[in-house]
Design brief:
acyltransferase, transmembrane, protein-cysteine S-palmitoyltransferase activity, single chain, mainly alpha, two-stranded antiparallel sheet
Amino acid sequence: MALSGGLRCCQRIFSWIPVVIITSVVLWSYYAYVFELCLFTLTNTLEKVAYLLVFHVCFVMFCWTYWKSIFTPPTPPCKKFQLSYTDKERYELEERPEVQKQILMDIAKRLPVFTRAASGAIRFCDRCQVIKPDRCHHCSVCETCVLKMDHHCPWVNNCVGFSNYKFFLLFLVYSMLYCVYIAATVFQYFIKFWVGELMNGPAKFHVLFLMFVALMFFVSLMFLFGYHCWLVSKNRSTLEAFSAPVFQGGPDRNGFNVGFRRNLQQVFGEEKRLWFIPVFTSLGDGHFFPMRSRNESRNPLLASEEQWEEEGGSDEETSGVQRDPSVTVEIES
């Protein structure tokens, strides 16, 4: 037990290494741009002020979104999805798989659960002892089930899911903006140092290296951001892009695709003025989502949704997220 605890402690420590690397690069870029370029190289006062003003706006937004991506905890399923003591005891004492499957099916009738495992069974997490809501997956690194899990990102040392997906997207946006602004404003001085028009000194190394690092990060971020833009437009998570969610009618990659505008609103909300600010505005509570098909009357589980809501619904106090009243539940036939 002591050895296992020590290994987990070491794992937690090492998991912060990518974050430390990113933070170190950003702090160095701040020093190189503010001091070596603006204060020590630029001679025009107006140019200095303009460069520093815009730079600090980009820098603050980058740091804010990065902070929110790292320190927004992944949201687990609320208590309604946990097995009661009686159900848990009945499930664990039962040795026949088909009976266990039926037990979970009976419990799920009280919940808005519409996706299935590949075998057709109710998705159940043995580690967390919860019936998984739609789009929820267990993260072995965070050791918890995460609502609308997209992926575990080592660069933020956190799970990207329902609670922080908007923050992660904004982090990519402001990271690219940060890199583009640095590259655009450094370029002319990069050329001057390169051809020898400016005196050699410490600033030369910082300016040259700053240009290469900004372009390198921008290219890598551009591909990652483009991929996530495609995911948002299709209303898919990274996990769903690789393995389509399974409904009662079978796998369907477009099961949650309700149109580009509504897909976008699910992540960023309906208040457009808040889209580019890292505050939580995503629709719903992460436990169930609108679906493409409207054949809900054919689904035997859907009839119990109103009963689930009356008995406690989304447990807003537990999930920490407000449910949007405009979100309706539909099911793939």
